[in-house]
Amino acid sequence: MPYNLAMSHLTILLPFGLPPPELARDLLRELKLPALATLMARARKEHSHREFDDFARALPHEMWLSSQFPLPSFVPSHPAPGQDLHNSPALACAAMRALGLPAEQGAWFMLHPAHIHIARDHLVLTDIRQIALSETDSRELFDAAAPLFAEVGRDLVYGDAGSWFMRADDWQGLLTSTPDATCGHNIDIWMPQGDGARDWRKLQNEVQMLWFAHPLNERRQMQGKQAVNSLWLWGGSPATAPSIGKREVFNLPDGFSGLGQYAKTAVTKAGAADIIAAKPEQGLLTLDTLIQPALTGEWSSWLEQLQTLEIAWFAPLLQAMRQGQLDSLSLILTDSSHMLELSTTRFSLKKFWLTPTLARLLP
Predict the structure, then answer these.
(1) pTM across the whole model
(2) Superkingdom, according to UniProt (predicted)?
(3) Which of 329, 322, 344 is nearest to 13 (CA)?
């Protein structure tokens, strides 16, 4: 490889890398992460634990990630008094293009087949990853629902097993929430608001009634799987031409892969060695394996995933910095309402008197 005079920098976004405050001390006692502890102890804090609204329509890592790319969006032209103007990231058209679907005109939303759990006095959206639909099963539900959309003049487009798309040009004032921000909560708080909200609820209810007794759900229940009993809508975006950025993007979480079109390199599931070899001038890597266990409260799995990240990522990247293969590194860690930003360089790693510690993960 020819010598590269450019500085190489990598930003790592670690969603739910911050443990919940009430469990933080107990969880940290179980962790053995010497590489991450070294990187954190010798890093400069860019920001303190910034707090976000507990009822925001997107999680901190989703807000940060979407802020790094030029995403078009729309807001209500005449918001109601006191209406929350925060919206989910405008990802629908980017996601469509990433799947090879045209998105040249109109306004589009993402739809995910979902399971809504009936609690004692409210409804709860469960983690959409747990649906795990096959392409065949997803097509079956899509074909069943499509006539309902056609009846009300809505274009429904199949993307993949977990993501469909709907065109609604007259809903450009509709405020929606990401499925991960909604997961585990009373959905009434996070349901769409504004232009088109009533029409969407009516259409959503019709789909729910259609799927209630669908043979596919009967088969899933016999197999001990969650019923697919609803659709979650979010990510509304006007169809505009994508802008091209300069950031090299490696891994992106579910729902955000379309942001790769804004980078100068395609999104890949790269490993540490691939990234080190690439010597990115401004690289972005998202390590998203902590999201699912955090959303579902499986903290033993969260601990296991962090230990895996230590071996697969933090240790190789620390070694690369010590050997001069990577000049600087930023760490952005979040939970459901906080974000911590740290940065370190290969020179700051020489501060041997700073003992490796994970104490910065504590609230």
Answers:
(1) 0.91
(2) Bacteria
(3) 329
Task: Report pLDDT digits (tens) over 202-261.
Answer: 999 999 999 998 999 999 989 989 999 999 999 999 987 666 667 788 888 888 888 877
CATH of 9-63+244-361, one of 1.10.238.10, 3.40.720.10, 3.40.30.10, 3.40.50.300: 3.40.720.10
Sequence letter at residue 223 = Q
